[in-house]
Amino acid sequence: MPVIPLDSADDPRLADYRDLTDVSLRRVTEPAGGLYIAESSKVLDRALRAGHRPRSVLVQEKFLADALALAGEDAEIYVVPAEIAERVTGYTVHRGLLASMHRPALASVEEVVKDARLVVVLEDIVDHTNIGAAFRSAAALGADAVLVTPRCADPLYRRSVRVSMGTVFQVPWTRLPEWSEAKPLLHAAGLHLAALALSDDAVTLDAF
Questions:
Q1: Dist. CA 137–CA 143, nearest whole Å
Q2: What is the value of pTM for the model shown?
Q3: Regions of the chain short of the pLDDT cut 70
Q4: How many helices (H) and strands (E) does the chain have?
Q5: How many Cα atoms are found within 13 Å in the side-chain-facing hemisphere of 145?
Q6: Does 83 lie in the same domain as 12?
């Protein structure tokens, strides 16, 4: 894995971290499938354990050993001073490491819910912090899978990943189609649909 010191925020090799927002990273056509950003060595480690591949790693000198221990052989490691990292990203990189990751293709709904007993559906949640917290809760509750509706925020958005504490790499997930198509898919998989509601006539999950 090549280790490349860089001293300019304008270096074109830092384009993944500088020129693209999290939304536009999803739409990159080269490489196919787009990219996402993993922040911190712990998040990168969980992503790698889930089979995800880094394209490059941006790291400060004092965190280089972590990057060398984690990054694959094909990923270039760009070493920059803290002030360059902040200029490139627009914020202080407290955790010292960012990785530009190849976004994996989403599995089908049928594949994700196969043999699942408890599936969490996140419907139209647009706040990335809430998405991350929901994934963390789903993991704590022992959910077998998470499904997100078409208008949900991106679970691989940097903030979602960070708040989830990496559980977006732990709990299988994919996107549902619109409900007119999703409902029969879930019923065909043998799943019963129930809505979480703060209602006087609501029953507990155990009772359901």
A1: 9
A2: 0.83
A3: 1, 19-33, 72, 94
A4: 9, 8
A5: 22
A6: yes
Q: Taking Cα atoms as reference points, which of 54, 42, 57, 76 lies closest to residue 161?
A: 42
Q: Look up residue 29 and give its amino acid.
A: T
CATH number at residue 131: 3.40.1280.10
Contact at 8 Å (CB) between 58 and 98? yes
Nearby residues of 205 by Cβ (< 8 Å), 6 or more positions away? none
Give me the pLDDT at residue 12, please. Answer: 92
Instruction: Return the pLDDT at 31.
Output: 52
Spatial CA neighbour of 154 closest among 141, 137, 173: 173
pLDDT value for 183: 95
**Are 70 and 114 part of one and the same domain?**
no
What is the predicted pLDDT for the residue at 96? 77
Does the bond joining 172 to the residue before it have cis omega, within 30 degrees of 0? no
**Which residues form the domain of 181?**
109-188
Element (H, E) at 36: strand 35-39
